[in-house]
Amino acid sequence: MADENLEPKHTLRLRSLRTRWQILTLQLVATLALGALILTMTSVYGGCNQDFIDEAEGSTYWCPAFEHTRGMAYVEEAFERDSILPDLITGADQVGEAALLIPSLFCLLLTGAHAYASSRSSKTRRRIKNTIYAIVIIAGFGPFLFEWIASMISYQRLYIPFGQEFPAWNHGDRLSLAMQAISEIIVMGVVFTPVLFGLIGIWNISMRAIIATISYSIMFIIFHALLTFEAVLESVQGIGLKPLPAQIGDSTLFGGLVSPLAFELITISILLFLFFESSHMVIRLFEYVAMLPESARTDNEHIRMFQTVLNTHLSQLVGVLSLATVLTAVALDFDEIMIMVISEFQPNQWSQQVNDSLELQMTYGKVISAGLFLLFVSMLRYLVPWQTVLGWFESIFRGFSGSRSEETES
Fold first, then answer.
1. Out of 129-133, 190-194, 293-297, least confident range
2. Residue 63's closest CA among 79, 47, 50, 77?
3. pLDDT at 109
4. Cβ proximity of 178 and 141 under 8 Å
5. Quick one: average pLDDT of 347-373?
6. In this structure, which of 52, 353, 382, 391 has its CB flanked by the most CB atoms within 10 Å?
């Protein structure tokens, strides 16, 4: 009787798998991590250089930062007409975090539309694609072609629609609407491409979209670092990007462990890690279930094993994420920890001079600090049995998840 009651409630069919609270938790965690990632990147990489702003002298300006409202205003001024995309969708009439809310919700609607199209037959998907392509072509080039052809019929002669002395024979302005729409989509895509791809990857179970989101975010950070590097900044000063401070700053947060700038950068890396791990685990679980035969999807042993793996991953995700956060913060300040230890055991003028050196506060100084930490940890393997320690932690996680699984089944 117990098995009969268990079967309809707990199965490994894909439809019932989507409603499990663990799967929904992982998807919600990945979604929240994606939203926090966009907010943090907008805060860190969304500003323009102050000198570039001063040179604009109050006029509309734009720089290739991780922000879209300035770009939308710049496109409007360049084409001398209002935005084609409504402000309700772009959020151009909002400031701060409010400017990201409505476009993100619109990306969520596009994710739902993508899910609906993906669930249709191949013939229906092909029809939807052809319809979208036809609408885009007609909306972009239809007015231009209609006006040009109608004018040639009216004047009964063939002519090129550009560079004519007679103003009525110049129809290039009709194409400017399409160019403006394309420009606005590009400006919006700078910020909301990872949002759209990330939501599709999370809720539509697409590993390709997850990788695209991670790759785009990392590539933007890399290009921003290259374009704001001191040796390169002098050559590309006209683009107006705001470089990150050359010094990492004083460690004032969490008991003097990290500086505000380091905390923002650590937050971005942790959010990327959390987004990838949560969404990737969901995809792996669905792939595992999809490979099971139909008989195994209702087998209690397979269901119990799946439940254990799922709970173990949730526990390990929290543990690994916390450990990675603490170790990253320690690695960035490992040089100060070493100097403090040396000063305690043997205080001298050298340790004080090194502690006051600005070189350690520079970006490459923190890279050296992290490298020293990795070297220190690798040398500890001769003293600390890391495999035994990790196995001990893993056994604790397994015991915790196993007890939770038994409570859930009971």
1. 293-297
2. 47
3. 93
4. yes
5. 60
6. 52
d(C-alpha 279, C-alpha 275), whole Å: 6
Q: Which of 188, 236, 182, 189 is nearest to 216 (CA)?
A: 189
Tokens 């992290």, residue located: 370
- Whether 202 and 30 have beta carbons less than 8 Å apart is answered as yes
Alpha helices in 81-206 (DSSP H): 87-90, 98-118, 122-155, 173-203
Task: Report d(CA 144, CA 138) in Å as an integer.
Answer: 10
> In the structure encoding, which two tokens stand for residue 62, read together?
């734009």
Residue 213 near residue 275 (C-beta atoms within 8 A):
yes
Query: Is residue 254 within 8 Å of 329, Cβ to Cβ?
Result: yes
CA distance 97 to 43: 10
Gap between the Cα atoms of 273 and 332, Å rounded: 18
Cα dihedral across residues 146, 150, 151, 156: positive or negative:
positive
User: What is the spatial distance between Cα 126 and Cα 118, in angstroms, rounded to a whole number?
Assistant: 11
C-alpha 114/C-alpha 132 separation (Å) is: 13
